[in-house]
Amino acid sequence: MYRDCLLSAYEITSCPHCGKEISTTGDGTQKVLCRLNNEGGIQENLDILPLLTEESYLKAYPEDRKARAFLEFCREGDYKAVVDLLLDDSEDDDEDEEGDVEMSTTDNAEKEVGIDRMLRYQDPIGDMQSGLHAAVHAQSREVAWLLLLLASNYPLLDFPTQVFQEAEAMGIMRGLTEDKVDIRSLRDANGRTAEDIAKEIGGVWVGWTDNNRLAI
User: Fold this and answer.
1) Which residues of the chain have pLDDT under 50?
2) For residue 109, is it within any domain?
3) Are 19 and 46 part of one and the same domain?
4) How many domains does the chain have?
5) Which of 77, 180, 214, 216, CA to CA, is 20 to 30 A from 156?
6) Do 83 and 162 share a domain, yes or no?
7) 69 and 109: one domain?
8) pTM for this one?
C-alpha cells in the first residue's frame, strides 16, 4: 500500500485502486495499518487513519489549514510557533485591507481564517478540542497563559509579570482580536471545559482549577 497514493486520492478506509477495504478494527478502534519505509527506517503497523482523515477534511475545508496548524502547535506546547502563526496572519489581514486586489474563487477558498476564529477554533475531527483544551492536554502552561491573554477576559492583574514580559518581547498583547467569545467557555464534544481536563491530569495544573482560570 502506498501512503502517498491514499493521500492524493483522499480515500479513508478503501484502496484507491481496487476499492478493497483496508481498515482493521481492534480494541473497538478503527485503524489503517501500513508498513512505512522512509529515510528514518521501516515502521511496521503504522496507523495512518488520523492522517488520512485530516487530509480528507482539508480537501473539503482548505481554509482551515492554518487553524489546524495552530491546534497542532498548541498540542506540541510550542508557544513561540503559535505567536509566529498569529502574527503572520495579522500581517496578512493588514495587507488585505490595504490592497485592492481581486481574488479568484480558488484563492478565497485557500484564504486562511482570521485570528479571532483561529484562537477559538474547535477541531471537528478531534472531539471539538479548542487550543486551550490542547494546551492542557500537552501540559503546557506557556501556551495556556498565551491563550488566556489573547482570547479570554481573565483579569490582567492575575497574570504573572513574566507572561507580560514574554508577550511584549514577542510583540503580542491582548486586543489583537475583537471576538467576544471567551476561550474558557468552550467545551469539547464530551461537554468538558479545559478545566475538566486539567482536573483529570493534575500535575502541572494543580492550582489552576476552581478559580475561573480555565473555565467560566
Assistant:
1) 1-3, 6-7, 9-10, 96-112
2) yes
3) yes
4) 2
5) 77
6) yes
7) yes
8) 0.72
